[in-house]
Amino acid sequence: MPTRYAFSIDLDRCIGCQACVISCQAGNELKDDETYIHVGEQIRGSGKTLWGSFDHHRCFHCADAPCVAACPTGTLSKWNGLTIVEKEKCSACGYCTDACPFKVPHIVDNHVSKCVACLDQVKEGQAPWCARTCPSQAIHFGERETILAEARAKVAALKARHPNAQIYGETQLGGLGLLMILLDKPEVYGLPLDPKAPETMKVWQSVVQPASSGLSVLAAGAMGLMFVFARRQHGKERAEHERAAKQKAALQTAQPKATETHHD
Known about the structure:
The protein is about 35% helix and about 20% strand. It is α+β, with helices and mostly antiparallel strands. The protein has one domain (about 5-195): Alpha-Beta Plaits (2-Layer Sandwich). The strands form four sheets. A four-stranded mixed sheet has the order 8-1-10-9.
């Protein structure tokens, strides 16, 4: 049975230094305006109850990855638990972005752009750049069973200071390849409790996509109308998601910044 790899990110240890972002860009030779990792800030409360943490937005490497299921060209696939990309196959259709419940994949220069876990480095026995350069050792990478056991031990130790501390990704979408050690409930970090592909993408996967060949003119027209409707409905869903994200960012900007975040 092949090794199943995974990341873990301990948000109690993350200091928001952006070293992972920089090393990822440099190691993967990304353009200045392209990045696979976004690190944000979470501020809650005020005065003596002021609480600060960071969040990471990046590929979760889902076991049951909606982006892989939606991709019509085989650009996205699974390898040892990781969701990888073959850019030369990409048609820039954007279905992966529509399907992803975390809105991670995006189109850059007519191809999908997202974390591939530094696949070339992993195949050579090295950890991905972000895990190798994190100065606070908040990011780990390795066999998923080992990473999960370590995450469980860390959460157990955190419970005394953060009663809501928990692992995100242990079971979602078949078990994520990115385990987040959260200090509070997932919704505080903008993470869905039950991530799944939008209903409109299920229409594409189960009806339109399999019927792409061998259709009569009438059937093809009917399927085409269904797909147009599905895309239109999902466009509304995506617009609503973007509005909610902008509102969240505006609220975070309006809140006072923590002067210091303490870590053990």
